[in-house]
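Replying to the earlier thread about multi-chain prediction with a worked example.

Input:
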Amino acid sequence: MRGRTNAGLLVGGTLVGLVVLAALVSFFWTPHDPTLVDAARKLREPGGGYLLGADKFGRDTLSQLMVGARTTLYVGIVAVGIAALVGTPLGLAAGMTPRGWLSELIMRVNDLVFAFPALLLAVMLGAVYGAGTLTAMIAIGVATVPAFARVARAATLQVMVTDYILAARAAGRRRTAIAVRHVLPNIGSVLIVQASVSFAIAILAEAALSFLGFGTRPPTPSWGRMLQESQELLFSTPRLALWPGLAIAVAVLGFNLLGDGLRDHLDPKLSRIRGGEER
Amino acid sequence: MTLYLVKRLGVLLASTAAAAVVVFAFMALLPGDPAEIALGVNATPEAVAELRSQFGTDRAPVVQFLDWAGGLAQGDFGTSYVTGAPIGPQIGDRLGVTAVLVLGGMVLALLIAVPLGTFAAVHHRNLLGAAISVASQLGIAIPAFLAGILLVFVFAVQAQALPSGGYVPIAENPAEWLRGLVLPWLSLGLVQGAVLTRYVRSAVLDVMREDYLRTARAKGRGATGALWRHGLRNASIPVVTVLGLQLATLLIGAVVVERVFVIPGLGDLLLNGVAQRDLLLVQGVVMVLVAAVLLINFVVDVAYRLLDPRLR
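Result:
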């Protein structure tokens, strides 16, 4: 059981680590300038300093992939950050006053936002303000708020019936103090798992938006747009679609496995249930 | 049950109305006056004012909203500021295409997920069961549009067995219509099937641990027989919930897949509308998609009650 838990964590962590490493290295070094257009290198085959070849503008594919990792992580971090910073307090408040009007209001608004998927929000934001990385990040972030709020609320409800909360309330602690000092640390693991899973969803959303032209604008490299540009060359140069596709799959798989692994690792209760399942 | 249905219907109507307010408020923020955009920079102020009153954009926002929402209730989406064509019929045409795409993808996903997930649960201790779990993890990591590009590469570029895109109406040529939809259906169905397989597996695993299933087996039914007779209905309850969420995801996935395969559905209409800055059209399509998501959630909640008598 123990070994199996660590396997998911290990594989997920390695894949995520790979993406993070590529992004970090790209700040200091890429094989070539990822945005340099050079007709002489147009559709250059892999090899000779161009490990993965070049695209129809002569841009080095490996360099683009590395900087694309940066774009992906940037969008993911900001989007998940928005969702966590907005969703967690809302979920906490709703969970601590389960029968109050505030809880009811929060959950109703939550349900309403839930009906607006990231893609629709991004298209609407793009139509009003012009599409770009910022509108994509905000749209994905806002669309992810309900997931965080729900998870935070469910976890808070469980924590609120424990003896230590009762003791804190009996001792006359203020509600905000209870929320920050007792509830938040105890739902932290659930939130970390949610963040990892949300990150995977954010990567998928960013790729889809860039593919549609509602994400990161050229010339900044992004995996989704690399895919979109490769589509017309699918018949002649399929490798151009292969690499960004693989990068997206590796990143999403990594964050999903990491989330699952963390869930087993951080929540002994769930591990025990899983342990029973594997009997 | 009736009381629940009435209450839940009320929630559906209220949230649809709230969504309409949000969509309208959002699009009303759009910088630029549709009348000025339509007439260009050389238009006289009188002409702009006249067109503005023709469009109705000179009225107070609240009046404009009530007019728009009142029209929606009767299926009237207004007239495009850009093309001058009524929007409702366009959405109606495209809705059918997208619905066929989404429902086909869903059916395919179920055909994949129910047998595979059940098999993986029953055989969760051996290699094949584990292999299915790994395969579904990989499937989840691939977005539908990427699956579409890969499928085009395999079946259109390499095998040259299916078209790489395009759409032929069913009335024109049913065989070509079907051939054109195979790859889009597969793109949506394979990915959603992978997601659903995981849920079916864990739902069946949960049911397999229940006492009533042990009782059924003690009474002499085989593992498969007991599961078939007593387990599937119980396992279907969590799966139906996920199914609803997935249907909403599929609807949005279809927007992107339509782009990959050049299919004239709602997604195509929406993206063209944005490109042409056709405000009212975008507003209408977004409203239809959001209303569809809300309606799906409603159906799921009601189905949940019907499947689980304990909740009635």
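Residues 65 and 205 of chain B are 50 Å apart (CA to CA).

Feel free to reuse this layout for your own posts.
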